[in-house]
């Protein structure tokens, strides 16, 4: 009996060591990086440079897989539903902070293990070069004096650029619907419409407005950030121009499904911090006109929760809040 007991104890110890050793060796095989948007876009490009750098950090291939559809719901769902073993990760985008509030899904930032915020591009407010409004204060005065007259565009109804402008107006105690939002298939066609005189305002990021600004067809009035953007250092912040503390924009970060093992989480957080600070990553982002932002682990989770709360208030204010189907 004593020998049998000692044998079982020894086998249990060996099994535990085997499991521990196998787990500590993560990653032992290739990792999948899910991107909720199509190949060739900004999110895809950002994910691929991160994946390439992760391969150097972790010593295993990181394969990018685009899972598109449902305004980002399909890809974000695939990340959340993956096995939490560290072999399926993904890039979350700003839409995850809006989807549930708009009734598109039951998913929220709480359904993930946050690893790192990697990119932030604040919204900016642009008008056409021929617009009579030379400053943000002049534009806001015109919106207040003539509610409903000046029209904005830049994305679909309820998209990030719609929320950005509506949130600003709400922050200033102006009806968020005072500048009607015309849906578009993105910032690029909206900027063309702005230059043609079909709309009056495009609240999009400076990188997305860049081509029209550089061509002398659009004029940026202010950026919705805490500090000026290096891309256009002469463009003031909202705080500087009109005293508003409203800040928002698009962001992208890396996360895993909820319940990732702590050691995997810590290893990923450290790797992503190294990448975020690397010359290769910062040079790539600068070449694309993308901003570099960072919040690691739990701080990224807090950042997403704050975004969701702020967006939820704006979505309700413009009448687009919906209960998701169970």
Give an overview in words:
The chain has 326 residues and is α/β, with parallel strands linked by helices. It has two domains: 31-120 and 250-318, Bordetella uptake gene, domain 1 (D-Maltodextrin-Binding Protein, domain 2, 3-Layer(aba) Sandwich), CATH 3.40.190.150; 124-242, Periplasmic binding protein-like II (D-Maltodextrin-Binding Protein, domain 2). The chain is built from eleven helices and ten strands. The strands form two sheets. Strands 1, 2, 3, 4, 7, 8, 9 and 10 form an eight-stranded mixed beta sheet that branches. A two-stranded parallel ribbon has the order 5-6. Helix 5 links the parallel strand 5 and strand 6 (181-182). InterPro entries: BUG, Bug_dom1. It holds the Pfam family TctC.
Number of alpha- plus pi-helical segments: 11
The best one-word shape is: globular
CATH fold topology of the largest domain: D-Maltodextrin-Binding Protein, domain 2
Question: What's the mean pLDDT score?
Answer: 93
Distance between the amino and carboxyl termini: 56 Å
Give Rg in angstroms. 23 Å
Sheet bearing the most strands, described? Answer: 8 strands, mixed
Strand content: 15-25%
Specify the helix fraction band. Answer: 40-55%
Signal peptide: 1-24
InterPro entries: BUG, Bug_dom1
Family: Belongs to the UPF0065 (bug) family.
Protein name: Tripartite tricarboxylate transporter substrate-binding protein
């Amino acid at each position: 009996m004593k020998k049998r007991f000692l044998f079982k104890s020894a086998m249990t110890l060996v099994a535990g060591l085997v499991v521990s050793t196998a787990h500590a060796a993560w990653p032992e095989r290739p990792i999948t990086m899910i991107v909720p948007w199509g190949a060739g876009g900004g999110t895809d490009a950002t994910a691929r440079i991160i994946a390439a750098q992760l391969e150097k950090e972790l010593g295993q291939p990181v394969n990018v897989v685009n899972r598109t559809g449902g305004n980002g719901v399909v890809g974000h769902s695939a990340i959340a539903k993956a096995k939490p073993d560290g072999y399926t990760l993904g890039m979350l985008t700003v839409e995850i902070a809006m989807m549930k509030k708009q009734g598109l899904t039951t998913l929220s930032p709480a359904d993930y293990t946050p690893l790192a915020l990697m990119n932030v591009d604040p919204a900016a407010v642009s008008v056409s070069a021929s617009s009579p409004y030379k400053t943000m204060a002049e534009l806001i005065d015109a919106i207040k004096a003539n509610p409903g007259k000046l029209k904005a565009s830049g994305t679909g109804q309820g998209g990030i650029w719609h929320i950005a402008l509506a949130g600003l107006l709400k922050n200033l105690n102006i009806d968020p619907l005072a500048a009607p939002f015309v849906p578009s298939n993105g910032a690029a066609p909206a900027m063309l419409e702005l230059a043609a005189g079909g709309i009056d305002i495009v609240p999009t990021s400076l990188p997305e407005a860049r081509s029209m600004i550089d061509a002398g067809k659009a004029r940026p009035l202010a950026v919705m950030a805490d500090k000026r953007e290096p891309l256009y250092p002469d463009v003031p912040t909202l705080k500087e121009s009109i005293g508003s503390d409203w800040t928002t924009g698009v962001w992208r970060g890396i996360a895993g499904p909820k319940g990732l093992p702590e050691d995997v989480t810590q290893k990923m957080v450290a790797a992503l911090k190294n990448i975020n600070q690397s010359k290769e990553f910062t040079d790539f982002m600068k070449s694309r006109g993308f901003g570099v932002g960072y919040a690691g682990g739990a701080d990224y989770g807090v950042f997403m929760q704050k975004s969701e709360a702020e967006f939820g208030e704006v979505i309700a204010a413009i009448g687009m809040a919906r209960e998701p189907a169970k």
